[in-house]
Amino acid sequence: MQSNKKTPRKTSPGSEFLDNIGSNVASADSQGVTVSVYKRLQTLNKRSRKLRKEIFQLRKDIGKFIPRVKPCGCYPINKANDIEVVRGESGRSFFTGLQHCKSVWTCPVCSLKISLERALEVQDICVNAFEEGLNASFVTLTIPHQIFDKCVDLKKTVSNSWRKVTNSRAYKDLKIKYKIRGYIRALEITKGSNGWHPHLHVLFLADASKGEIVAMSESIINQWLAVLGSGDRAASRAAQNLQLVYNSDGIEDYITKWDLSKELTEGHTKKTSRTPLMIFKEFQSTGDEDLLNDYKEFARAFHGARQLTFSRGLKEEFLKIGDMTDEEIVKDEKVDEVLFVLSPGLWKDIVRNNLEAAILNAYDEHGIKAAMKVTVRRYG
Q1: Which of 83-87, 168-172, 321-325 is the least confident region?
Q2: Which fold has domain 16-51+105-333?
Q3: Are strands 83-88 and 93-96 parallel, antiparallel or unpaired?
Q4: Is the pLDDT assigned to residue 289 strictly greater than 60?
Q5: I want to staple 52 with a disulfide (CB 3.0 to 4.6 A). Which of 88, 333, 346, 357 is the partner?
Q6: 130 vs 276: CA distance, rounded Å
Q7: Domain boundaries, given as residue ranges, for the chain
Q8: Which UniProt keywords are present, listed alphabetically (predicted)?
């Protein structure tokens, strides 16, 4: 078994390592990291920068309808305090002294930060597990649903069914038989012509052969079907999915699911199944109140739910880069330098005129003079 010594992380996914990975493949290899996956994370990170203005605006738009998102990135922690424009240790600029909602489901800014960080954790766990000789499988678990089913009821059914499976004697026997070391479970939801469709994507890690992993996963699927059948939600085997993961590159599917930029730029007209964010954007473009009600229903149902769950002990055993809570992830990174200060009144005007992204982009692209010029040009 490998050492459990953690490597502390000073920054979140917007770090220098992600920024420089294209020219620093050797560094990635030396850290035990699959380069192709980190390149994917770097791509997502760069896209988020290019879309900073759109993401900030989307957060404001969602905040008009979801109260807990409204203060995020706009309201000072203390109304009497100045807002500082700073450079973090990653080299990127940001504002300090602002509230963060930490909503992984409804805030495009906080969810992007949290999701990218969790992607790093999934990658690190898999790399270390594979180095130890473990094998893995992806299992997708679904439930039957109808157009009249409420989002909250379906979410409860999925969560309760999973709890029954993992708490059962049968699952505990499988853990022993196949030496299951743990799992990572992602909860997702979309909506299509048959209504809300919550589902689970579960990555299992076990000290077993590939053939045994398949048998183990099939047994878990059968347990899932049995639980649903006992609760009048009988599902078909064809609706569930199983695939082997041969190396850490195989977890890239997890990362692509969190590509917010795709949801921001893809059209919705040909989508038969849409994410909640796509539903909200369609409401913006059409003004259809039914779509807004759908989004609000989702927000109420999933408030407080965990998007990504790691089985007990998995992080302690395989995560080498240090664990972080959602609160720690969205918290401002360490300040390297204060660039300039904005008074409370000036900050209100900046927010009112949607200039937050313009100021940060100006600094990141052209330096402090350009960032100050954006402010002075309008208010100087």
Answers
A1: 321-325
A2: Alpha-Beta Plaits (3.30.70)
A3: antiparallel
A4: yes
A5: 357
A6: 34
A7: 16-51+105-333
A8: DNA replication
Tens digit of each residue's pLDDT (9 = 90 or more) over 50-73 = 688 899 999 999 999 999 999 999
**Residue 134 pLDDT class (50, 70, 90 cuts):** very high
Q: Residue 335: is its pLDDT beyond 60?
A: yes
Cross-strand bridge partners of residue 76: 98
* The one-letter amino acid at 250: G
Question: Residue written as tokens 């699952």?
Answer: 171
Does the structure show a pLDDT above 50 at 12? no
**159 vs 137, 142, 241, 357, CA distance in Å?**
20, 11, 18, 38
pTM over 0.90: no
Beta-bridge partner residues of 245: 136
As a whole number of angstroms, the distance between CA 338 and CA 86 comes to: 4
Residue with tokens 């990127």: 92
Cα–Cα nearest to 340, from 309, 367, 363, 372: 372
Sheet with 135-142: list strands edge to edge.
Answer: 241-245, 135-142, 195-206, 180-192, 308-310
Instruction: Check pLDDT > 70 for residue 106.
Output: yes
Which residues, in sequence order, are bridge partners of residue 192? 195
Report the C-alpha gap between 229 and 148 in whole angstroms.
Answer: 20
